[in-house]
Structures are given as C-alpha cells and as structure tokens.
Amino acid sequence: MKQHRTIAVLLSIVLQGLGQIYNRQWLKGILFMLLEVAGFIYIAPRLGGAIWGLVTLGEKTQKFVKVGKVAQMVKGDHSIFLILDGLIILFLVFVLLGVYVWNIADAYRNGKLRDEKKAVNTFRQSYEHATTFYFPYFMLALPALGVLFFTIMPIVFTVMLAFTNYSAPDHIPPAKLVDWVGFKTFVDLVKMKSWSHTFVGVLVWTIIWAVLATVTTYFGGILVALLIEQKGIRFRKLWRTIFIIPYAIPQLISLLVMKNLFNGQFGPINQYLGYFGLGGLPWLTDPFWAKVTVITVNMWIGIPVSMVLILGILTSIPRDLYEAADVDGASTLQKFRIITMPFILFSTMPILIMQFAGNINNFNVIFLLTGGNPAKGDYQFAGATDLLITWLYKLTLDNNKYNVASAVGIIIFLIVAIFSIWNFRRSKSFKEEDMIQ
Amino acid sequence: MMKKWLGVLIVCVLVFTLAACGNAGKDSNNAITPEASSTPAEPGGNNAVTEEEGELLPEDGASLIIWEGKSQRNFVEALAQEFTEQYGVPVKLEEVENPDQVTKLTTDGPAGLGADVVVFPHDQIGRAASAGLVLPNDWFGEETASENDPNAVSAVTFEDILYGYPRSVETYALLYNKKLVSTPPKTFDEVIAFSKTFNDPKKNKYTIMWELQQFYYDYAFLATTGGYMFGSNNTDKEDIGLNNDGAVEGAKFLASLKESLLPLNTGDITFDIKKGLFIEGSLAMDINGPWSLADYKAAGMDLGVAPLPSIGGKPMSSFSGVQGYYVNAFTKYPNASKLFARFLSTKESQLRNFEMNGTIPANLEAVQDPKIQNDEITKAFYEQFSHSTPMPAIPQMASVWGPITAGIADIWDGGKDVKASLDNSVSQIKDAIASQ
C-alpha cells in the first residue's frame, strides 16, 4: 500500500510539482512547476558560462583596436565579474535545489497521507496551515535569503580571492586576467621572506596589542569603578560624569586631537615636559614609543567602557556577603580578592573575551593615531604599529594586493572565530556551574 | 486575519526579490558574456558618421560626469556651463580628490559606475593604463602633443600611447616669508648660514621645512647628486638607482641637515603643522607646491617663491607631476567625453585655470602669455619645473614609497648608516617588484 507515495515521489523527481498534481494539489503543483520552469529558463543558458567563468576566470583580455583615427575598446573578460556572476548563478542553483528537495519531501508526505487513506490538504488548507504553523519560517526565509546573498556570498567571494593572483600591477582586470593560483598566496605569506617577515611581525604585535589593550582597559576600569564606589567618596556623580566623557567624544575627533597632542616637537605633552626640564619622548616616531602611545591612548578611550560595565556589576553584589566578611574581620584587600573580584570576573568573562577579539581588529585607534607608522624598512607595506586589520587596509586600498589582503582576512577571521567559539563554550559552562562554592 | 495578510505580503515580497535578483544578474551577465563583446565596432554607429564629416560629434542624448577635487570646482563648473551651451551636453561634477581617482576607477569603471572624465597626477597613469581603465587620446592626439610642453606630453603617455589631456604641471619650490628672508638663498650653504642666526628649536623657530615623511620631497636630495628611481627614463624597473653613489652622497648630505637645520623626527612634521608655523612666522622657508598657495595667500602672507637652493653647485632636482584629464574606457559617451576633456585642456582653458586657481599651464603658448611671464611666483615654479624630473609612471612605483620612506626614517630618525639603510630599502623594493 505504498503506491501513492512512491508514484508521487517519482513524479516529483521527474518534474517538480508533478507529484503534487498527482496528489490532486493542483495549485501547489502548478506553483512548484512554474518555479522550476522559470528556474530552468533563467539558469540553463547561464550555467555553462558561469562554470566556464569560475573555472577559467576569463580567456580574452580587453584591448584597443584602431578604427580610423579613433581607438575602439574591445571588451574582454573581467575575471572578478566572472567570479561574482558565477557565484550568483551557483547560489541560485542551490536555492532551487533546496526547493526541489522540499518538493520531493512534500510529495512523499502527501502521498503517504493518501496511502493511509487520509485527506490531503486543499490549497486553502495548506495555505492556512502554512500561515499559522509555518509562519515563523516564512518570516525567517526572507532574512535568510538576504544573509545568503549579502553576507555569505561576499564572504565566499573574498575567500576565493585569496586563491587568485588578483593584485597590482600585473593582474588587475579588465586589461589583465586573473588566474587561480591555489595556496600560493598563503605559502608566500609563510615562506617568502619579504612577506613572512612582515606577516609574523604584524601578527605578533597584533596579539601583544590585543592582550595589553584588553588587560589595561579592563583593570583600569575596575580600579576607577572601585575608587568611585569607595565608601565615603563625595561627589560620586561628578566623578562618574568626568570619567565617562572620553567615551562620549567620537573617537574620530579625540584620536586626531591626540595625534597632535603627542607630536614630538609641537605637541603640548612634550612642550610641558620641556618646561619641567625633561627631554621630550618620540611618542609617535619611535617604533617602541609609538606602541606605548597607542596602548596608553587606548586606555584613555577604553577605560570608561569597562568602568560603566563594572559599576553596574558592583551594585549587583549582595551586601550581606560584605557584612558577613566584616563580621569575620576580613580586611579590605581580602574582601576584594574573595568577594568582589570573583564576582566581576564571573560576570564579565564572556565580555572580556569578546573585547579581546574586538581589539584584534581595533582599526580606529591605530589608523587614526599613527596610521600604522612609524615606517619600518623591512616590512612589506606595513609600519611598526600596524595591526593585521590596518595592514589589510593598506594592502587593498593603497597597494591593490587584493589576494594577499584576502588571505590575511581569512587568517584574521580564523583567529577571531576561535576566540568566539571558545567564548561561546565558556559561557555555556558558566551557566551550568555554580559560581562561588 | 492579520497573519494571513502578512503571509500574502511575504510571498509577494519573496517573488519580487527573486525577480529583482534575476534582473540584476541578467544585466551584469550581458556586460561580460563573450558574445556581447565579439563585435569590435560595438558603439560604432556614431563613429562612422563622425568619421565621414571629419568632425567629432557628441553622441545623441549624451550627458557627462566628471570627477574633480574641491579646489577646481570653480573652474570646472564655469567651463562645464560653456561646454553645455556649445554642445548641448550637460555635465555634472562629482567631488573626488585626484590621488583617490584611480583607486576608485579600478572598481567603479568596469562596473559602469565611474565618471566619464577623470583627472589624476601622471604617476598614476601606469596603473590606470595597464589596467585598461582609460581611453587613448586619439582624436585630439596631434594637437595635444604639439601644443603642450614635451615633458608634460611624455608624462601623460604610457608605453608610447598618449592617454591624457594635460591640465597643469606642478612641482615644489622654495616658498619664503618675505618679512623674514629678504633675498632667497641660492645655495644650501646660504640656508645653513641663515639658520645659525634664525633657528631656535626651543621657541619653535625654524629656517626651513619640508614633509620629511613624504619621499616625494626627500627625493630631491638624492636626485641632485645622481640618484634616480628607475633607470635613465624612469621606466626600467630593473635599474633602481636609490642606493648608487650619488644617492648615498645626497642622503649623507640630507642626514647632516638634521643637526644644522631641522632637529626633528620625520613624523613630527605634518602638512598642517608646517602650514601653521609658516603662517605665524616661526618658519622662514617652506618647500611646498602650488597647491598650498591659496592657503598662504588667504592668510595674508607676504609670500615669495624661488627655485630650490642648489647642493654642491648643482640645481636641486625636484619631482614634478602633470595633472591631466582622462576619458574612462567604460564611458557610454566616448565622443562627448573626449570633446569635454579637450575643451578643458586647450590653451585658453589652461590660462583661465591659472587665473582662477594659480595652476601652472602645460601649454607652451600659454606659458609665454604675459599674464604668466609677469607673475613672479609662477615664473619661479616654472624655473624649478625646468630642473625637475617627472615622477615615474610605471606601475611598479607603488612598491617604492613604503620601503624608501622607511629607509629615510632609519637614516634621519635612527641615525643608521646611510649606505646600509638605502641598500636595505632597495632590496625591499626589488623583493616587492619580484613578488608581483
């Protein structure tokens, strides 16, 4: 008695929607069929070209042909557009394949209903069923399509670029074609001395920077918050307002002001040092001091955020814990170590890890303050304070090394992803454990 | 009830999005499919007509977009209006600063989003032309070549094809404050002698400044004594002369100036700081280009301009640039664009631009015009221009700036050995070029 479902599935495999029609779901079947026909009409003539484009990345280059006195442009293949168009077609094929699978599953389900002598839904019923039971899925389908075409596709595109030689000056379309080179860009990053030296140097500094930037702002924030919350501190609101100001000024402005403040000769900071008879420091021009400067300035910008966060947590610590500690005669330091700090750490650990991941990509501070400078002679297109992300910016916008930039982008993605996953795991484990034993 | 309607709405939207996706894909597909481009004379209909009449006519219904920087807005808008009156082609200006144009054109041009006429300094032409982004200047080629300064013409030519329509030439010279310097120094020895009486770093008083972080300016010190960038014509990427004996001699002289003239680190001199000092009278001389004149004049300075002081008896060889208009290879209206680019770059237009913005014409007759000949500032710039080297235009230039700037910083800030630093920079440049 499995006839109906088998026949429906077979028919649906042959032609999308046929199984539904066999199940006497006319309208649904026709809709499915129309979708497949439309898909075929649209995709069939393009699929070959799309695959050809993705595989070869174009064969003809653009050139000029003299016609009389005027040079005519003969269009060639644009490798990058070929990748994009190929991807769009492939993604559409995936979406339609999804519909195809759904159509088969649907034919099977309704065929099974008929086998069991149950009535299949009329279109009206399916529609009502869909709008009530499947309503959330419909709501989700739109953003999901959006994510597919506007988020996932660009990511796939970027990843693909890392496996090409899309870079100035010899492989910039439309005059020149781009080719697939496999893992060559990654291998160069690791093996070729001029690239690997820069890569390792920038990577190491990025990690040092992320650790220092996170730790300094975090503990700075705790310190300021604790001081404000000390018993007997007057004008608490005033202090809070003062310390939040750096956060309220847009970084774009404050960082550019800072840049002038730290100017080695004309900046007020070195001028003041001069008044006190001290020599100025090369804040932005010496590789070491430039690193110190970016971390210091980052503290100034980042501490208010941590401070606000920790002020909130401090108020949520149960007072009775402190009272009990007072009864036991604990010192201030002991109270901090045993009650306050674990509480803060417990609540902020996930945020702390995300801040760390965020600092790996802290573009603003570096780009606006030092621009990655001071220049470093043995680096390829990078300066002493460049992070991976600012290096990536220079590679793409200043030097058109799109392939290396994509490879660096993938590496940044991997690093940040690892921390995010770790963070996710941690926060889960936190939920299950009881915090203070 | 509500849910039902929502459901209908969503289905509609879904269908629409799919349809929209489809259309977009179709359009871009057409643009690149091999069939679409297999006929060489694709936009040919129009040209056939113009060819017979021996006159270039704008396409029917043409309208143009030009990218220009802010400072040229007055000039371009005035001429666009006249162009529209004469040819009936409307022109719109979009503000894009010249150094950013080729980067923007690289992505926007082939996508059909670029301006029809663009303008950029000639050192970018290698990048633009080798990527096939600009049309050759064919129709007006002969006029352009014969009317303009040969240096300027060769600057807007790449691999023997003329692309550009020169707008102006520019180089840097010695700007001085007439209240502080009565006669401009002819040699660097005079500059150093003057600094003994004037320099006072504690009070922020300085004799001379240039943007040390920009190799564009530092190049003059290396080049005067025999350094060069890419072979004799600045086109040989194998022959880098930034660490030869001449360059080392020049760099040693440059390094010696830190003690005697400019006890600052390279990164501390920015364009704005220098401008501020010069205007307030703390800085006597500024090595700068014509693009800075407007600010200084607006500040009411008593400004003089002279050629750069000589080094060891040799006139200082600066980098020069030629600003030129170019036609986007992907323009829908190549004829109208060529006409407009030509219209903006004739002798009369170049002179008008000089009157309005102080740019220095590339047109030979325009230079002889009394307006230019009687203008002390422009004459001084022009004299410096005759000692200048056009910036190399080959695309490998992009690999030079970073390493050589770092090398100069090593020498100036770090006091490192001159020869070793330059050798290091050059090997970096060679590595970068080899890895392309």
Automatic annotation (TrEMBL), chain A:
Xref: CDD domains: TM_PBP2
Residue ranges occupied by any ABC transmembrane type-1 domain in the UniProt entry: 203-423
Record keyword Membrane present: yes
Compartments where located: Cell membrane
Primary subcellular site in the record, as a coarse category: membrane
A GO CC annotation given for this chain: maltose transport complex
Gene Ontology biological process terms, A to Z: maltodextrin transmembrane transport
Annotated PROSITE patterns: ABC_TM1 (PS50928)
Record's bilayer topology term: Multi-pass membrane protein
Gene Ontology MF: a single term: ABC-type maltose transporter activity
Protein keywords: Cell membrane, Membrane, Sugar transport, Transmembrane, Transmembrane helix, Transport
Highest taxon listed in the record's lineage: Bacteria
Gene3D superfamilies, per database record: MetI-like
Name recorded for this polypeptide: Sugar ABC transporter permease
